[in-house]
Amino acid sequence: MATLIPALCSCAGRMTAGERRLAERLEQKLEGDYLLWYDVPVGPKQTHPDFVVLHPRRGALILETKDWRLDTIRKATRQYFEIVPDGQPKTVMNPLAQARHCAIEVVNALERDPQLVQAEGRHQGKLAFPWGHGVVFTRITRKQFDAAGLGEAIEPHRAICQDEMYEDVDAEAFQARLWAMFPHAFGGALSLPQLDRVRWNLFPEVRVAVQGALFGDATDARADGETAAELPSIMRVMDLQQEQLARSLGDGHRVIHGVAGSGKTMILGYRAEYLAKASTPTSKPILILCFNEPLGVKLASMVAAKGLSDHVHVRHFHSWCHRQLTTYGQSLPPQGGGFYEGLVDNVIRAVERSQIPGGQYQAVMIDEGHDFAPEWLKLITQMVDPATNSLLVLYDDAQSIYERARSKQFSFKSVGIQAQGRTTILKINYRNTRQILHTASLVAADLLTADDQEEDGIPLLKPVSCGREGQAPVIIKLPTLRDEAFAIADHLASAHKEGHAWGDMAVLCADWKTMDLCASALAQRKLPHRVRKKSGEYRPGTDAIQVMTMKVSKGLEFPVVALPGVGHMPAAGEDEKEAARVFYVAATRATQRLVLTTSGLSSFGKRLGL
Predict the structure, then answer these.
(1) What is the pLDDT at residue 457?
(2) Assign residue 488 a region: left if phi > 0, alpha if psi is -120 to 50, beta otherwise?
(3) How far apart are CA 290 and CA 365, in angstroms?
(4) Which are the contacts of 578, defined by CB distance < 8 A and separation ≥ 6?
(5) What is the CA radius of gyration of the chain?
(6) What pTM was estimated for this model as a whole?
C-alpha cells in the first residue's frame, strides 16, 4: 500500500469526491515503495498540483484531477476549456497544460541539484530520472471521452477516465495507465539519499537544518522566494512518518510520545508555522509552552527568525503564569520561597473565578509535556479556544527529570486532554549517532525498558537508533574533578581547531560546583564561554561555549557536548533512577561528539566500564 501524505483521514474533508476516490485508488493499487502527496505546495514558487506520485524506479508524476461531467464541458482546445460548472460559463486552462505547468516547476526545482541530473552525454544537466504529467477525469468514462473528441485537446494516453479507476480495476492495468503518461523510460533506481534530495528540493518545509535550528532553517530561502544557489552536500529531511504526521495534524487534542531526538519539536514548529500562516488579522494567537527557560528562549528565537512572533507566543510556563496575573490585574504571590508555586495557584484560582478567561488561544502546543504537573496540564487545556479545540502535547516519560507528583493512574483524560485515537508514537532517534545513543543507554538501560500502556496512559519508549555513525564517545578517567575541568577545556580547544564553532559546544554539569570549576578552567584557557545559572543568561546564537546544568539543557542540542563529574553520579542520597534520567537527557544533547570525564567511583562510572 502506497504512503499518502497527508494521511487520507486528515485531508478527506477538503477533497472533492473525485479526488478522494483517486486518493483511495492510488493508495490501494500502488505498492509500498510509492510516495504520494496531495495538494502540497511544491518548489520555490509553491505551486499546488493535486497529486505528486514518486517511485524510485518509475520517476515523478504530476496528476491534475477534474470532477467535471461531460455536459460541464462546452468547448475544449489544447490551450483552454470552456466549462459551465454552475450555469455560468467560464474559460479555464486546459487541465493537461495545468498539469504540465506544475510538472515543469517540479523539474526546474530538481534540476538545480547536480546530484539529480545526468552528468554527461547529450542530456547532460537534464533530470536523471523520468517525469510525466496527466489528467484524471473522475466523472467521464473513456467511451464518453472518445465520443466527445476530447482526445483532440488532451492526448488520450495522458488521461485516466472514471471507469479506469473503479475499485475492481486490476492494479496492473491501473498502473499501466499511470506510466503511459511518461514520454520516456530511462535511468536506474533512485537511491535513498537521492529520494531525500528530491524531497528537500520540492518541499522546503520538511528540511532539517544540519546544525543549530530546532525546527527548520530560516535561511533556507532568499527573500525573492528562490532557494539559495549553493546547495548543501548533505540534505536532511524529516523521515516519512514525521512528514506525514506533521502534514496530517488537524484540530482537536493530540499527543505525540517520542523518544529523545525523534523530531517532536520539529513537528511542533511545522504545525505552529502552518497555523500562523493560515491566521487572519482577527485570529487568536498561538501559544507554545515549555518548562525549561533556555528551551523557551531557543524556541522564541526560532519563531522570531521566521517572522511569526506576532502570531506565535512562546513562553516558559511560570513566565506565562506571571504574565497572566499581571495582564488581568490579579495579585502576585509574595517573593521568596514558594513564589513559583504561588504563581500557578493564583492563576488556577483566577481561572476558576473567571477573572482570567479561558479559550484565549487559537491553538496551544506544549513541548516537553512530561515536565508539567497534572494540575498545570489541566489549567493549560482550558486556554484552548473551543472553536478550534487545537491542543498538541509532546511527551517522553524517559526524560521526566523533575519531581512532579504524578500517580501511576495518571491519564490524559483525567486532566481534560481528549486524545484517544489521536495519539502517535515516535521511537526512532535521529539526533544522536549510534555510538552516542549506545553510551547514553549504558547508564539508562533500566530506565529505557519499553513499557507499553493503553492509549490514554504514559508509555515508556525505548529509542531505536536511525543508524547514523560517528565517533565513539571519549571517556576520560582522572584523579580529581578539577583535572576533569581542565581536560574538558583542552578537548574543546582541540575541537575548535578542527572546525567546530565555540557556539557548537556545551559543558553540562550535574551541579553548580562542577559548573564553577569548568567555567574557571575555560577562563584560564582563555576560551569564550557563557555560564547559565539563572533566567536570561542563555542566549542562543552566541559564539561561546555554553556552561549549564544537565537539567536545564533539556530540549536543546549541540554538536559537541562534554559531561564532567559522571563518576560522582548519582550524588549521595540521590535516587539512582532519577539521576539516570538526568544523565540520559544530558548525553542525548550531543549530535556529533560526546566527552565524558570521571574521577569518582560511582555506579555510573562502572556502567561505562571504568
Answers:
(1) 58
(2) alpha
(3) 9
(4) 401, 403, 570
(5) 28
(6) 0.81
First to last CA, the chain: 49
The number of beta carbons lying within 10 Å of the beta carbon of residue 91 is 11
Q: How confident is the model at residue 260 (pLDDT cuts 50, 70, 90)?
A: confident
Over range 574-586, report the average pLDDT.
Answer: 90
Give tens-digit pLDDT for 80-109: 999 998 888 999 999 999 999 999 999 999
Place of cell 466527445: 148
List the single range of 147-161, 407-421, 512-526, 584-598 with lowest mean pLDDT.
407-421
CA distance 240 to 337: 48
Strand order in the sheet with 558-563: 474-477, 590-598, 558-563, 505-509, 545-549, 529-531
What is the phi/psi pair of residue 560, to 5°? -120, 125
Gap between the Cα atoms of 213 and 557, Å rounded: 9
How many H helices and E strands in the chain? 17, 25
CA–CA gap between residue 291 and residue 318 (Å, rounded): 8
Q: Which amino acid is at 10?
A: S
Please write the tens of the pLDDT for every residue from 422-445: 888 888 888 999 999 999 988 887
